[in-house]
């Protein structure tokens, strides 16, 4: 073969005459590399690879997800307009609590569209739920008339500390102090630390993720006890507040359950989906690793769950506090059979006072 040799200093370049340097060659698909990427659970595909692997079904998923997200946002607007008529004193708190559903739904849709944005979407969703918990606590205290009025009404009542998650031994040994100012401050600190601690932890995790994904996966396990301790203590404070409000005669448990379910979906359900590929062997789907496919399904389910929770929130907040349209209160009067019937003619011209004195 005739070669063209060009010598430049000490470097020798040997090029075949019939080969052009401008010509590009197609990249060959290597089955071994594709298999390695498929079963690498720490690998997150880029948008182009993700789109090609799931085409044309990805369009159906995106359109359905966008429709559910728009329905959730519309329900949020409708619920806010109805809630502001009955919750004027807590309008800001109600808005933040109700905003958790469209925010979590938006984060789930972002994770469906961009697989590499899953960690960021998870951080946004979890922080939104933590902030909603804090505003739910403030809303309950405002509904009870504020800390001072709540303490004045409770007189010698005690704060119920033996509630979930501190209801079993040895947590049942926790004392129950009198409901005082410092008790409410302690309970408020338990609740308010949640968004602060969770934000700091996720800032560190996102920094590790930006540096190296393997370092993030190795370090994430060590952060789990701090995340769990922060959430459990915060939920403990909110449940104590809910029990205190119910003792004062306010019906706040359904509103707390609506936010608590969002927390369970964001943390427990997402965590289970994250560790599921490591527990069981799942084959690759459309040349993407199983963790990406499971997270896609989990985020799609989360979209539907946020829509259902939005519908429930609309039913809860469309009425005034403490009222429920589905269970109307019925007053039943029971009369003793021994009471003799009264002649209506004898009641003419008599005042209620004389009537009561006659038939006492």
UniProtKB/TrEMBL annotation:
It comes from the Eukaryota. This is Organic solute transporter alpha-like protein. It is found in: Membrane. GO terms for cellular component: membrane. The keyword Lipid biosynthesis does not apply. It comes from Bombyx mandarina (Wild silk moth). It holds the Pfam family Solute_trans_a. Its main location: membrane. It is a multi-pass membrane protein. Keywords: Membrane, Transmembrane, Transmembrane helix. The chain crosses the membrane at residues 57-84, 96-114, 185-210, 222-244, 256-276, 296-317. SMART domains: Solute_trans_a. The keyword Transmembrane applies.
């Amino acid at each position: 073969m005739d070669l063209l040799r060009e010598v430049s200093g000490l470097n020798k370049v040997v090029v075949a005459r019939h080969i052009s340097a401008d010509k590009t060659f197609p990249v060959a698909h290597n089955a071994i590399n594709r298999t390695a990427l498929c079963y690498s659970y720490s690998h997150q595909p880029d948008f182009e690879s993700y789109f090609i692997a799931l085409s044309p079904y990805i369009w159906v998923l995106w359109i359905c997800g966008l429709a559910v997200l728009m329905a959730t946002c519309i329900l949020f607007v409708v619920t806010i307009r109805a809630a502001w008529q009955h919750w004027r004193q807590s309008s800001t708190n109600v808005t933040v609590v109700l905003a958790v559903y469209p925010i979590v739904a938006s984060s789930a849709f972002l994770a469906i569209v961009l697989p590499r944005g899953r960690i960021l979407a998870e951080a946004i969703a979890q922080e939104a739920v933590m902030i909603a918990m804090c505003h739910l606590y403030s809303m309950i205290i405002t509904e009870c008339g504020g800390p001072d009025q709540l303490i004045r009404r409770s007189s010698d009542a005690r704060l119920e500390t033996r509630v979930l998650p501190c209801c079993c031994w040895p947590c049942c040994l926790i004392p129950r102090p009198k409901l005082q100012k410092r008790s409410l401050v302690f309970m408020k600190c338990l609740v308010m630390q949640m968004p602060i601690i969770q934000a700091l932890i996720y800032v560190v995790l996102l920094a590790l993720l930006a540096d190296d994904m393997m370092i993030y996966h190795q370090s994430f396990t060590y952060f789990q006890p701090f995340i769990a301790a922060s959430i459990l203590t915060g939920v403990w404070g909110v449940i104590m507040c809910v029990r205190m409000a119910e003792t004062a005669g306010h019906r706040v448990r359904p509103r707390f359950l609506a936010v608590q379910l969002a927390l369970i979906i964001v943390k427990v359900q997402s965590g289970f989906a994250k560790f599921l590929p490591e527990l069981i062997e799942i084959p690759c789907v459309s040349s993407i690793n199983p963790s990406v496919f499971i997270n896609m399904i989990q985020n799609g389910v989360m979209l539907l769950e946020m829509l259902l929770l939005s519908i429930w929130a609309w039913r809860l907040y469309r009425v005034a506090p403490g009222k429920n349209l589905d269970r109307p209160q019925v007053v039943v009067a029971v009369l003793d059979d021994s009471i003799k019937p009264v002649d209506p003619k004898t009641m003419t011209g008599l005042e209620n006072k004389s009537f009561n004195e006659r038939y006492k």
